[in-house]
Design brief:
Layout: H1 30-45, E1 56-57, E2 73-74, E3 77-78, E4 80-81, E5 84-87, E6 90-93, H2 99-121, H3 126-141, H4 145-148, H5 154-171, H6 178-195, H7 227-237, H8 244-251, E7 261-266, E8 269-274, H9 275-278
Parallel strand pairs: 1-4
Antiparallel strand pairs: 2-3, 5-6, 7-8
Helix pairs in contact: 2-3, 2-5, 3-5, 6-7
Length: 290
């Protein structure tokens, strides 16, 4: 038997979801294309190959007479130009509308409603149904909600709310509406930005001289309804900052010792906590939320 000498393993590097964002005015795209070329050269020096077949280019241009930019090439291969693509689980369109994203969220959430019906049919306890709903359905509907909800149309918001209404009818437990969930996420995210002086958006939260209200952000167009104007408006108008957990403390009461884990969605991640602590109902929190 002949044994070949072992060869040292070759290190393999893999990078995913690399994004280049370019902002330019007029017809000068030099800086943007130089940035792409610089990224290509950097990857080559670090033994990384860009897969041009999976690379997409999306252009957002609201000029009335904007010229079509020339194609983008990476290592001689043309980059496909698309009208919409999926980035980190969120569908982004060239006109910055959220129709495609809303359709995808509703489709995914409705598929999981089937399993909620199966659990209800098998007489699973209501507390467990709520736990499943929060971890499997609500987490889908509220993924990156602070990014897209402000710019959604009224019809899109109603379509998303219908999913929550269907879940309520399945197990008969009141659930926070999508508007309340967005407001709580908006306040939570704004509070985290205020606590982090190094956050890129920290300077946008500017306190007025009395120190009780933040300076409102205004824009020349109503096209871009971003997170920051809505967050400042919520901070100025909310008397009490309620989190998602506060909403569910009011709506749900768990006394079942067999339920050990409750799922909550914080920001864009799902975390776990003890059910006894999570669903405890202090007297000061049993009143309806404002």
């Amino acid at each position: 038997m002949t044994v070949s000498p072992l060869t040292p393993p070759t290190p393999v590097r893999f990078a995913d979801d690399t994004t280049v964002v370019g902002l330019f005015s007029g017809e000068d795209e030099t800086a943007y294309r130089d940035e792409v070329q610089g990224l290509t050269e950097w990857c080559s020096r670090n033994n990384l190959n860009l897969n041009s077949s999976k690379t997409k280019e999306l252009i957002t241009d609201f000029r009335r007479r904007g010229a079509v930019p020339p194609p983008l090439y990476i290592s001689g291969d043309g980059v496909e130009r698309v009208l919409s693509f999926r980035f980190l689980g969120t569908h982004i369109s060239e006109d910055l509308s959220w129709t495609n994203n809303t359709i995808a969220l509703i489709k995914k959430a409705q598929q999981r409603l089937y399993f909620l019906r199966i659990l209800r049919k098998n007489n699973v306890q209501e507390k467990l149904l709520v736990s499943y709903y929060r971890s499997a359905i609500e987490s889908v509907l509220t993924y990156c909600i602070s990014t897209w909800y402000s710019s959604c149309s009224t019809a899109e918001r109603r379509a998303l709310q219908r999913v929550i209404n269907t879940a309520q009818k399945i197990f008969g437990c009141p659930l926070p509406c999508l508007e309340d969930l967005f407001n709580s996420r908006c306040l939570n995210r704004a509070a985290n930005i205020l606590k982090d002086p190094f956050h890129p958006g920290h300077h946008l939260f500017d306190l007025l001289p009395p120190g009780k209200r933040f300076r409102s952000i205004t824009s020349r167009t109503n096209r871009l309804k971003s997170f920051y104007p809505r967050a400042i408006r919520e901070l100025n108008t909310s008397k009490h900052t309620h989190t998602d957990k506060d909403s569910y403390r009011t709506l749900c009461s768990v006394e079942d010792p067999n339920l050990q884990i409750a799922h909550f969605t914080q920001g864009d991640a799902v975390w776990e906590s003890d059910a006894e602590e999570a669903f405890s109902l202090p007297t000061s929190q049993t009143e309806p939320l404002e």
